[in-house]
Amino acid sequence: MHGITCRTDGAILRIELNRPDKLNAVNTAMLNELTARLNDGADDAVRVVVLTGAGRAFCSGGDLTGGGTGGAADAALEAVRAITALPKPVVAGVQGAAAGFGCPLALACDLVVAARSAFFQLAFTKIGLMPDGGSSALVPAAIGRARTARMAMLAERIEAPTAFEWGMISHLVDDDEYDTELQTVVQTLASGPTMSYGWIKRALRESTLSTLDVVGDLEMEGQSALRDSDDFRRGARAFVERRPPEFRGH
C-alpha cells in the first residue's frame, strides 16, 4: 500500500520500501504509510523491526517526477522520529543507493547493515535544497561536523566502505554475504533482551540526538524557504531534464 509492504515474521516486523521502478523514491503518502507501519512496531509481539528497499536501491530520496510531495519534508521527519522513538531495535538493510532522504532514513535506524556496493549521499544541493529528515542531527552524530558539511554541501557519494570507516554504519558486508549477515543481526536482536535494547536506545538518543526535534523544525523552515527560490526551480527542472543545473544564487 502506497509503496510500502509489511509483514510480521514471528517477532520480526519486516518493512520494505517497494517502488523499485523509482529506486524507492518517496512521496508524502508513502512516508505517511511508512510512519504508520513503524508505529506497528509498538505491538508487544514485535521485538525488532527491519527496514529494507526492494530492487536495486534502499531509497533514492524524494520523488521529483511523480508529484504527491506536498508536505513531504514534514512527513519525512515524522518517519525518522518514529524510528528513533520506537523502544525496539530498528535495523536498516542497505543495498544500492541511500541518497537524499534515504541517507537520514538509514542513519535513524539503530544498526545499518550495508552491502559493499551500497553508497550514501546527501544530494539535496544538486536541486538547490538543504538536507532534511533530521539529517543535520543524525549525520554529524555519526561522522562529525566537517564530514557532514562535506556531504551536505558537495553532495558527494560516500561509498559503503568509506561510510563504515567514518563510523556512519555499523556493518559492512560483501554483496554475496549481505542477506545472511542481515538475517543474523535481525535474528540476534529478535531473541535478545528487548527491554534492555529499549533503554540503550533511549540513552543513546538522549546523548547523541537530543537536538533532533529542534534541528528537524529548523530544516523544515529552511526547506520551505528554499522551495520558493529560483535556484530550486532551476535545480528541479534540470533534474527532470537530466542535465547539470545552472544556479544563480537566489
Automatic annotation (TrEMBL):
Single GO MF descriptor: catalytic activity
SUPFAM superfamilies: ClpP/crotonase
Keyword set, alphabetical order: Plasmid
A Pfam family assignment: ECH_1
Family the entry assigns: Belongs to the enoyl-CoA hydratase/isomerase family.
Designated name of the protein: Crotonase
Organism: Mycobacterium branderi
